[in-house]
Specification:
With about 80 residues, the chain is an alpha+beta fold. It has one domain: Beta-grasp domain (Ubiquitin-like (UB roll), Roll). It has two helices and five strands, in the order ββααβββ. A five-stranded mixed β-sheet has the order 2-1-5-3-4, covered by helices on one side. The N and C termini lie far apart (about 45 Å). InterPro entries: Beta-grasp_dom_sf (IPR012675), Mopterin_synth/thiamin_S_b (IPR016155), ThiS/MoaD-like (IPR003749). It comes from Acinetobacter nectaris CIP 110549.
Length: about 80
């Protein structure tokens, strides 16, 4: 199966628990949940932050069931409380 590269950008509190530059190699067609699992295996302290973060590609918020078929930049956004 063909491999793709996913570059991870993190914002908010997620940024404090992941390296500033993070690239993940995964099989073409893997979903965001699988990528999140790979990250939490390597960076276990990130689990509480990643389970609540929003995921985006570009300016579009995407579902964790979204499958990636090409090299992508995946953005993790911490939840924001507002009033």
């Amino acid at each position: 199966m063909e491999k793709i590269t996913v570059i991870i950008e993190s914002y908010g509190m997620v940024k404090t628990v992941l390296p500033s530059t993070l690239k993940i190699r995964c099989a073409q067609g893997e979903d965001i949940n699988t990528i999140l699992d790979k990250i939490t295996e390597e960076y276990s302290n990130s689990a509480p932050f990643l389970e609540k973060c929003a995921c985006a590609i570009g300016e579009d918020i995407i579902s964790r069931e979204t499958k990636l078929y090409k090299d992508s930049t995946l953005v993790f956004l911490s939840p924001v409380a507002g009033g």
